[in-house]
TrEMBL record:
SMART domains with a match to the protein in the record: SAP
Domain SAP residue range list: 132-166
SUPFAM superfamilies: SAP domain
Compositionally biased intervals (Basic and acidic residues): 24-43
Domain of life: Eukaryota
Organism: Chaetoceros tenuissimus
Protein name: SAP domain-containing protein
Family annotation (InterPro entries): PGBD, SAP_dom, SAP_dom_sf
Signal peptide (residue range): none
PANTHER family, per the entry: PIGGYBAC TRANSPOSABLE ELEMENT-DERIVED PROTEIN 4
Lineage, opening ranks: Eukaryota, Sar, Stramenopiles, Ochrophyta, Bacillariophyta
Length: 1268
């Protein structure tokens, strides 16, 4: 047989097959067999020619043109096409025996051995050109086979190859190969023999077109004007309905009241939920609760869940990447590269915060692009166009140099781990981030019923063998991944250059379909409906998806041939206009019968301007539906509503297929790699992954707001702007956008209420209260049951951590709740409202406030608006000074009943007498509340029960007194304060934590200790003996100093005396003696990663903010002077009642902090890593103290078992106990075993203080620790 040299019309090379000699054919066969027997790692990678747009989209409906993944998967996995249309391995110039080809990539049709030839002589058989044009894929392959030509490629290429062969009169040399004839109505590969297509018959009666009277000749934009008058005839298939399994997903939906706010149980704080069908995807509320996220959370707090800052948060999400870990890898990479020695001699280890700042710079550049991101780090004085002072202050000096370090050493993978083989992990450098994405996203989002699958593209302009040439998308060349999305949220991705899962390859699925089936594995519920385009969809894949463990129902357009569309449904594209008009509006449909593994699979086609073929497992009816759209009417020159017909299943596809496109649009709007040319290939998938996570965070924010009923949302731009600002310059961002309040949290505590004023300035707070229009929720009624201090809905009135300042009630129907309760009267004018208690009350021009029976003075009348209060106290009378002054002028308080605990050692009478001419004050004792018999019975109860019963009895008696003493209504604020003495158990509880977490961590500094304490008279001699424990601190500190090689500190111990020192201190720290310090406190540490060796910041705790925490401070000396002197009222004029002062925390926020920042010229920052607990009598520790506004632990103890922490420090067993019936607060009771801190113990246990300060820091700075 002669060799044939035929040229393909598409190329100048010999693409047509050439039949070699038998010896050469045997040699080629041996090589191919050897190649197939090799392991995937041994197979040599083959360069695959990029597919052009024309080759990729032969039928005009493909949106991607994807023929498979990259590099060597052709050799390892076989053909990437999911159907019979696209062939397997492309060949150039050589015919490969089919037995070998079948081992490389299975051919979907049964073919004979290519070496089998007939004894007949080769002969040329002509075929007319129009007959070739009408041939199907299998016909073209058959004609090429019998001519011994290559039958690999797409349909257009095969058609051109056959036409060229006919032109060159290539002879037929194989006569025993029979054409493949498909049985009529046969479904195809993967279906049982009993399965067949049943053609559906349309209704005889046509569907009437909607009438648009104001439009003369309405037409679609794709219809030519000359054809506008032609109205195609349309028919429904009303005789057929198809049952589909119902989506099973449900979720706990928050119940909303009539104002759109979440309902909750006041007593417990639990939100009311109801099980609801999850038709739309939602952000997981349980996950939001665990991360303390509310609609008012900052954008960076949402993003911190998807891109965690710390390793602990990543572990909480079962993720495998965090900024902290990436920073460690990057610093390790720099050290391995000899940074600081061979290269970048000025390099120094960068902190996690610094790495995140420089990544945030790209987010900043995404929302406000500049030609180079480095232009952003310049001050505006230097670069007036692109410079940014905010960024320059955030990144600090040498920002451009540090950004070079960032670009050189930023790493997404541990450099100490040997990389895997490329065939196993081609994305090794970013694999931790990709794995983290998939792990976190599937937990954060609860998918709804309708999802979509499509490809995502990562733009890359450099050189890489996995890069794809993409001319048909705006994104351009780059890498690709298959993605499962909903409403812009990316649930799961699978990189296309990653090996397809073997689990599905072994089942016979193509690599493309294997990746999609792997995406379905993350779904938690059955019967999701997934839309996809014609790259993915075919008949066999519909069946595979339905038989997936999650029983996924797929639907979408498909190509017209090779995807299993039956002949009865197939519609050929007409070229002539007359023929197009004849078939326009034609609908054909068929359904698979006889296969219980794929029930009611529908194939349909609709001829619009071109035929559209569709496969669906979700369609229930085949009918035309009326749609409406606002369009411009050229006749009336107005925008009007136009009605038109559309097939229902096509409309379903149009509305549910675009989820991936929405995610791409959101991510691409403010892309991180704007104006960035990635020289490192892995930066492209990194930027893409970070962009996907930020987009997911925004979608999660919108979903959470919707669940809470919040309607005013941040735009996507504002979300990204705030995120960029927070990452680049967190301190200034928090000043600009302080912590928001007023939105309920999901913690099991009553939700925080909106403050009636901003605690910035007392004068502004008193002068202009906030508008109450936001308090639209239903008011709480005043009754005996709601006033119960333990279980009543109004028990929150006793919580002094909330603001109880009243604001005007603008609703015209608001009526006074107190008048309604007391007298039954209805008062609608001059009504004010407490946003915290949700109780409206009346303000009148004359308020009559009565005294109790014991008062001999006449009733006092105050011609001003006033309030009443009940107060239960025990010692700590110095706190009454600020409390009385504040509430007298802020409310104003004009009626007060004070009850003194029977165990109180001091009386508040001298302080109360100062206010006799300003308000009516009654002083009560136990005999004013309890009868003699009750007092006798109470003597046998323990301390806790005595106190709680006293609380209840006093609150009831006080409320009844105030209620019955006046016919006029007054808003009554019940305040509760109860302070235990703590000196008694200093030795057992407080001392170990002071030694371990205060003295030892700071022993490396040149420091002295001042211990200042006070004593009170006591009948118990043990109280006095605790002064020995205080003096022992001096000896303990000397032992600690000796262990770290420091000279003994100077120890000053004073009792109720003014402390004076001969030293000049640079930094001073104040700690409480009666606090339990849970974590080490370094007096130069601003937060977890930042040290203030420059002595520029004043640091206070980040918890217990009412509105700030005033219990501890460490700062430069001048700042501490202001803090200490102001608290002792040395700088406040107390000659007038109006100047006596405020409550300490409010005073701290309104006076001390601004004064420190102004006079001491240092910023006041809050350290979220500091944590200490209050202590109580009988060895009790209040472990709920270190909590933020939502009730979650602060960062320092966020992932620590706090019970175990306390037990390890005090070396004894402790048990939890609830303080109240609501289980909202817990205390820790430790047994009575002694724990002695001795010199011997400290000498034998080597302390492990924090690392020493850098060598360039002046360690001679003298500091002092004051414990009082």
């Amino acid at each position: 047989m002669d060799s044939l040299n035929q040229k393909d019309s598409n190329t100048s090379d010999h693409e047509a097959a050439v039949l070699p000699s038998p010896q050469k054919l045997e040699k080629v066969t041996d090589k191919l067999v050897e190649r197939v027997n090799k392991s995937p790692e041994q197979v040599k990678r083959r360069k695959i020619k990029n597919i052009t747009e024309e080759e990729a989209n032969p039928d005009g409906y493909d949106s991607d043109g994807e023929a498979g993944p990259f590099f060597d998967v052709w050799d390892i996995e076989g053909t990437q096409d999911p159907d019979e249309e696209v062939s397997a391995l492309p060949t150039e110039g050589t015919v490969v025996p089919e037995a070998i080809l079948n081992t490389l990539s299975p051919v979907p049709v049964a073919i004979q051995n290519s070496e089998a030839t007939n004894n007949k002589e080769p002969v040329f058989i002509p075929i007319a050109v129009d007959e070739v044009e009408k041939m199907f894929m299998n016909d073209l392959k058959h004609e090429l086979k019998i001519r011994n030509l290559s039958y690999q490629g797409k349909k257009d290429a095969l058609r051109k190859r056959l036409l060229k062969a006919l032109e060159d009169q290539v002879k037929v040399c194989k006569f025993d190969i029979k054409p493949i004839v498909k049985k009529k109505n046969e479904v195809g590969t993967g279906f049982p023999d009993t399965a067949f297509w049943k053609e559906l018959q349309a209704d005889e009666k046509p569907v009437s077109e909607p009438k648009n009277k104001r439009f003369k000749l309405p037409r679609a934009p794709t219809i030519e004007a000359r054809d506008a008058s032609f109205v195609p005839t349309k028919h429904n298939f009303s005789a057929y309905t198809f049952e589909r399994p119902k989506f099973e997903g449900q979720y706990k939906q928050l119940q909303l009241d009539r104002f759109g706010k979440p309902k909750y149980i006041h007593r417990t704080g639990h939100f009311l939920t109801q099980e609801t069908e999850r038709l739309k995807g939602v952000f997981d509320l349980d996950l939001a609760k665990s991360f303390n996220l509310t609609p008012n959370s900052h954008p960076h707090e949402f993003v911190d869940m998807f891109l965690p800052f710390t390793k602990s948060k990543a572990k909480k999400l079962k993720g495998c990447w965090s900024f902290e870990e990436a920073a460690d890898w990057s610093n390790c990479k720099a050290i391995l590269a000899k940074a600081g020695e061979r290269i970048y001699p000025d390099w120094d280890r960068m902190t996690t915060e610094e790495y995140r700042k420089h990544l945030g710079l790209y987010i900043f550049n995404g929302v406000s692009p500049s030609p180079s991101v480095l232009k952003k780090v310049r001050p505006q004085a230097v670069d007036a166009v692109h410079g940014n002072d905010f960024v320059a202050r955030g990144l600090g000096a040498n920002a451009a140099l540090k950004h070079r370090y960032f670009k050189a050493f930023w790493s997404m993978q541990d450099p100490c781990i040997a990389p895997l083989e490329r065939s196993e992990s081609p994305n090794w450098k970013v694999q931790p981030l990709l794995d983290h994405m998939n792990a976190v996203n599937k937990r954060a989002w609860m998918p709804g019923a309708d999802l979509s699958v499509d490809e995502m593209t990562m733009r890359f302009k450099g050189k890489h063998k996995d890069k794809r040439r993409i001319t048909y998308k705006r994104e351009g060349d780059g890498f690709q991944a298959d993605a499962l999305c909903e409403d812009g949220f990316t649930i799961q991705v699978y990189m296309r250059n990653h090996p397809a899962p073997k689990k599905y390859l072994k089942q016979g699925a193509s690599p493309l379909h294997s990746r999609v089936l792997a995406l379905f594995d993350v779904l938690q519920d059955k019967h999701h409906r997934v839309g996809m385009d014609n790259l993915y969809n075919n008949v066999s894949f519909c069946r595979r998806s339905y038989n997936h463990p999650k029983c996924v129902l797929v639907h979408g357009v498909t190509r017209k041939s090779g995807r299993g569309i039956p002949e009865c449904v197939f519609q050929r594209e007409e070229i002539k206009r007359v023929d197009q008009l004849k078939v326009r509006g034609t609908v054909k449909a068929a359904v698979v019968m006889g296969d219980p593994g794929c029930p009611n699979l529908i194939a349909s086609s609709v001829y619009d301007t071109k035929p559209v073929h569709y496969l669906s497992m979700v369609t229930e009816e085949l009918k035309w539906i009326i749609k409406e759209r606002s369009v411009y009417n050229v006749d009336t020159e107005e925008v009007e509503v136009l009605q038109f017909l559309r097939m229902g299943h096509i409309d379903k596809y149009n509305n549910t297929m675009g989820h991936v496109d929405v995610a791409d649009q959101l991510r691409g709007s403010y892309r991180l790699d704007a104006k960035v040319r990635n020289l490192k290939w892995w930066w492209s998938p990194m930027f893409w992954a970070v962009g996907v996570q930020i987009t997911n965070a925004y979608v999660a924010y919108k979903s959470l707001c919707k669940q809470y009923g919040k309607t005013k949302l941040m735009s996507h731009l504002e979300f990204r702007e705030r995120l960029a600002m927070a990452w680049v310059n967190m301190p200034e961002y928090m000043e600009k956008y302080p912590v928001a309040t007023g939105v309920p949290s999901l913690a099991n505590t009553p939700p925080p209420r909106e403050l009636a004023f901003s605690p910035i300035s007392l004068a502004s707070a008193l002068g202009s209260p906030a508008d109450s229009t936001s308090s639209t929720s239903r008011s709480t009624s005043i009754e005996e049951r709601t006033l119960d201090p333990v279980q009543g809905a109004l028990k929150i009135r006793l919580d002094t951590t909330y603001s109880h300042l009243h604001v005007p009630k603008t609703t015209s129907r608001a009526r006074c709740g107190l008048h309604r309760w007391c007298t039954g009267e209805q008062h609608y004018s001059n009504v004010v409202y407490c946003p915290t208690c949700r109780v409206p009350s009346l303000l009148e021009s004359q308020i009559v406030v009565s005294a109790t029976e014991k008062d001999v003075n006449p009733i006092k009348v105050h011609n001003e608006d006033s309030f009443s209060a009940c107060l239960l106290v025990m010692d700590d009378n110095h706190r009454r000074i600020g409390w009385l002054a504040y509430h007298h002028f802020a409310l104003p308080l004009r009626r007060l009943i004070v009850m003194v605990d029977s165990r109180s050692k001091t009386s508040p009478l001298p302080i109360l007498q100062r206010w006799e001419k300003y308000m009516t004050i009654d002083l009560w004792h136990d005999n004013d509340v309890f009868s003699k018999q009750e007092l006798d019975d109470r003597s046998h109860e323990n301390t806790i029960k005595l106190h709680r019963s006293r609380q209840h009895a006093f609150n009831v008696k006080c409320m009844q007194t105030l209620k019955g003493s006046s016919s006029n209504c007054r808003a009554t604020t019940l305040q509760f304060e109860f302070l235990w003495t703590t000196k008694k158990f200093l030795k057992a509880i407080s001392l170990p934590s002071i030694v371990k977490n205060i003295l030892i961590p700071n022993a490396k500094y040149n420091w002295n200790i001042v211990i200042h304490y006070g004593t009170l008279p006591s009948a118990n001699e043990d109280d006095i003996s605790n002064t020995d424990t205080i003096h022992n601190l001096g000896e303990i500190s000397k032992v600690i100093a000796a262990n770290v090689g420091k000279s003994p500190p100077s120890v000053i111990i004073k009792d109720d005396e003014k402390v004076e020192s001969e030293f000049e201190y640079g930094r001073v720290t104040f700690f409480r003696l009666d606090a339990f310090y849970a974590v080490p406190v370094d007096i130069f540490k601003v937060d977890k990663d930042t040290f203030d060796y420059g002595n520029r910041y004043a640091v206070i705790p980040a918890f217990g903010k009412y509105p700030v925490n005033d219990q501890m401070i460490y700062s430069p000396t001048e700042a501490v002077k202001i803090w200490a002197m102001t608290r002792r009222n040395d700088i406040i004029d107390t000659s007038e009642p109006g100047s006596i002062g405020l409550a300490s925390a409010q005073l701290m926020a309104d006076v001390i902090v601004p004064t420190i920042m102004d006079k001491a010229a240092c910023n006041v920052v809050k350290n979220p890593d500091v944590c200490f607990y209050r202590t109580r009598a009988s060895d009790v520790v209040l472990i709920n103290d270190c909590s933020d506004e939502q009730g979650a632990p602060v960062r320092g103890v966020q992932d620590i078992d706090q019970v175990e922490l306390v037990e390890n420090i005090v070396q004894r067993k402790c048990t939890k106990a609830c303080i109240d019936a609501g289980d909202e607060e817990e205390e820790l009771h430790c047994d009575k075993s002694s724990w002695a801190v001795s010199s011997r113990f400290l000498q034998t246990s080597s302390p492990a203080p924090a690392p020493a300060p850098p060598s360039n820091v002046d360690t001679t700075l003298l500091s002092t620790i004051t414990v009082s």
